[in-house]
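Re: the multi-chain job from yesterday

Posting the exact lines I submitted so nobody has to dig through the queue logs.
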Amino acid sequence: MIESKGHPNRLGLWGWFGGGRWGVERYLYTLHRLTGLGLLTYFLLHILVTSSRALGQASWEWAMGTVSGPLFKFGEYLVFVAFAFHAINGIRLGINELGFGVGPPIEPVYPYRTSLDFQRPLVVGVLLLAAIIVVMGTLNFWVLD
Amino acid sequence: MSEKTLSEITYRIRRFNPERDSTPHWEEYRIPYSAGMTVLDGLWRIKETHAPDLAWRSSCRMGVCGSCGMLVNGKARLACNTQVTELGGGTVVVAPLPNFDIVRDLVPELAPMFDTHRALMPYVIRDDAQEQEHPTGEFWQSAHELEQYLQFSYCIKCGCCMAACPTYATDALYSGPMPLGQAHRYNSDTRDGGFSARKRVLAGEAGPWRCHYAGECSRVCPKGVDPAKAIQLMKRELVLDYLRLHKEHCPAPVAKKPTEGKRRDNIPEAPPPTV
Ligand code: SF4
Ligand code: SF4
Ligand code: FES
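And the result, structure tokens for all chains:
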């Protein structure tokens, strides 16, 4: 590896959120990572809260009391929305990352048609499905509850 | 913006001279617009009339050599392949390709990309070294087999895809779309037998598993190479290989010379091969 003496110019996290003019798959990529991190945080908290049972009845009741407020209920709702998106979009990524739905290699003739155009119907389907699940979950969370 | 209404154009350029500056800064230049002007033409004009020390790389002026990749109005593109009018008539904002260190002004340090490219063995690998060194004929390949890699072979190594990739933006260990796309270009070439050798380099965090199909690489590629497609197709091959279902092809044989038929009198003999 040649050591560079240049000025660092790596975009870092700005490469996820901004840094240029991006398309819809880029935002889905970023959202997938963010929701993944959110779910991971939830799982850690979940383990922490439920493990309080090991310390006895009193600490369990204290932990459950702490997480039963409206703020935590809203947090749980966000976890549900993140889960709906992450799971359904994950299926799309699984399909694409196994080389399905991206189209065969083609002769690049301008204006170029990329694999993104091939898999766009899948993106639309995924977003619709995630939206339906979120609407159903929202009713369940806030209206039918 | 139509060409007729445009008489002058403003360039906003990110400048950096390692001998003088500690960080890059922006400078503005106003130059006359001329019909058909590309972003590269404008840079030459600025160099001639305002800033003789402005540095960038370019050579062919026709989207072939791959040296003039830059961030133009927020998108990685070839300066020679981008008309100023395409940008809507406002200020032309030019910065060096991100995700590469800045050597000076608009010159990115592309060496890490080429190191990774070299490590992935971007050439035909075969057992018959004798035939490769002293070829007796062409390797046989059908039109369908050619199509499997032709698209990926149009890559001019401009680095625009690397500048657009969000994974490469946060992960310096990731090989990036250009080298990975080129690894698949050779893996899918029936004349090649280097899949196993490249697989060893592709394993781990430098390999294609870091790519999560944001697709920016394919969106910005000025040659329609579609590295995102190449990477996903390569992942499928690697999964099949893991499941022991990957069909390792024998590298294509040397095509037989035609033995029948007679040359027409008015067609001269081909000159002797030079390589
Ligand atoms: S894949 Fe496209 S954008 Fe990337 S280096 Fe090759 S030509 Fe440039
Ligand atoms: S498809 Fe993969 S290589 Fe291309 S920009 Fe996205 S993450 Fe990077
Ligand atoms: S100068 Fe060669 S690609 Fe632009």
